[in-house]
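Tokens in:
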């Protein structure tokens, strides 16, 4: 691990000021990805700004038509939240299936979204539920947030404050997970929202994406059978030791059908 200056931010203003003073500063949320990168010397920031002491970044609150979750809220807190379980059970279930107990008790919603790992679960929830990412500078719609592998719409030094999830009419998240890491080889969030049907896929490509053909089919007939025969082209999907691109294409349809069934 390379040497760096450590800062324990007490407020968003403290974090922004520390970031502006650093030559190559990085923000630390749950640290489940960043700390590993530091240990392997894959990342060498000049300054590390710990957001864990900023109370306004944590917590879950009910709002008109939805739930807002603070960026520093741990996965385990989302999974066991009575409010989330009651209003958006698909989100609680998704959070409860992330990684192992250590990851769920350390990892955060904001850290996961800012990192935007191609196989992470939360991006499917944000995109599939049409959530809004609230930062210290603006509000970013889900469709505008995810830009590519480990890439988001966040500007340099921009901090995720919270995420606002509208309550869907029905939704479910199903994933085919890696048995060791529990990352999604393919994960699908299928949701019927106030704005229409949304189907978001994670794990299959370089970044989370929506499947328009499935959305149109489910809008006409919310049934697993409506998805029969809809296959996502494999040419832009991931291929690795765990699954070929063609197998991932097959899994998308299988997981989508199961998600629709679970949401009924």
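Residues out:
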């Amino acid at each position: 691990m390379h040497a760096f200056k450590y800062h324990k931010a007490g407020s968003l203003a403290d974090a922004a000021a520390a970031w502006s003073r650093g030559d190559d500063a990085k923000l630390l949320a749950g640290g489940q990805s960043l700390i590993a990168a530091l240990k392997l010397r894959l990342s060498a920031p000049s300054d590390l700004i710990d957001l864990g002491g900023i109370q306004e970044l944590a917590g879950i609150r009910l709002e008109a038509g939805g739930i807002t979750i603070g960026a520093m809220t741990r996965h385990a807190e989302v999974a066991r939240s009575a409010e989330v379980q009651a209003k958006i059970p698909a989100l609680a279930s998704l959070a409860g299936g992330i990684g192992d107990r250590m990851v769920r008790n350390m990892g955060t919603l904001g850290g996961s979204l800012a990192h935007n790992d191609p196989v992470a679960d939360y991006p499917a929830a944000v995109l599939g539920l049409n959530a809004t990412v609230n930062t210290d500078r603006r509000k970013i719609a889900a469709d505008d947030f995810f830009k590519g592998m480990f890439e988001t719409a966040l500007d340099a030094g921009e901090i995720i404050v919270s995420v606002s999830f509208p309550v869907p009419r029905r939704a479910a998240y199903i994933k085919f997970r890696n048995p060791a890491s529990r990352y999604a080889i393919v994960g699908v969030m299928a949701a019927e929202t106030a704005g229409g049907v949304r189907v978001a896929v994670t794990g299959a490509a370089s970044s989370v994406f929506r499947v328009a053909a499935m959305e149109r089919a489910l809008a006409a007939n919310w049934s697993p059978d409506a998805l029969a025969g809809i296959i996502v082209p494999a040419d832009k999907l991931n291929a690795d030791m765990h699954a070929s691109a063609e197998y991932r294409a097959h899994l998308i349809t299988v997981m989508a059908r199961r998600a629709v069934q679970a949401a009924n």
